[in-house]
Amino acid sequence: MSYRYSFDMEVEEQTAGSSNANIKQHSGNHFSRKEKCLIMNVLNYFKATMNIKAAVKEASKALCCSERSIYAIRKEDQITAVASSKKPMKRKGTQINDRLCVYDNDVQALIRRKVHDSFIANIPPTMNTMLCAVNVNLPN
After folding, report:
1. Domain extents in the chain
2. Contact 55, 46 (CB under 8 A)
3. Does residue 140 surpass a pLDDT of 50?
4. SS3 124
């Protein structure tokens, strides 16, 4: 009981100076992944010492969000882990327009050499200047 009292005192001391301590999130705004992780961490903290209903009430008071939101985030976490980081998508196979498939090493080296020559001559390597440098017969 004394531990619970000391925790409440710490929370009151931390929120006493802030003017927006009891501002709730407006309806219609979604919680970000970080906010959901924070809610789950606070809920797990309270769940260790009390039942789920009391833990949700305490978490909603501490975080200034509704109990319904906490239950919804808890349900979402049970179905798919909220705390898991988003994994980057990997491309499967080679792309059709991949320059490694379209051009061989000789052509790539030639293009690279032309671009470097234009940088040395202090000319910006635009498509028009590269086409003129590669094939003089092409029109502007």
Report:
1. 29-85, 99-134
2. yes
3. no
4. coil
Q: In whole angstroms, what is the distance from residue 48 CA to residue 4 CA?
A: 12
56 by DSSP, 3-state: which? Answer: helix
Residue owning tokens 């690279």: 112
| Ramachandran assignment for 74, one of left (phi > 0), alpha (psi -120 to 50 degrees), beta (any other) | alpha
Q: Quote the distance between the C-alpha of residue 39 and its chain's center.
A: 17
Torsion sign, CA atoms 55, 57, 58, 60: positive
Pick from 49, 28, 50, 25: which is nearest to 39 by CA?
Answer: 25
pLDDT one-digit tens code per residue, 88-116? 777 777 677 777 777 778 878 888 888 89
Comparing C-alpha atoms, which of 33, 39, 83 is closest to residue 64?
Answer: 39
pLDDT at 5 over 50: no
For residues 109 and 10, what is the distance between their CA atoms, to the nearest angstrom?
A: 66
Tokens describing residue 136: 């003089």
Helices 127-134 & 105-120 angle (0-180, nearest 10):
110
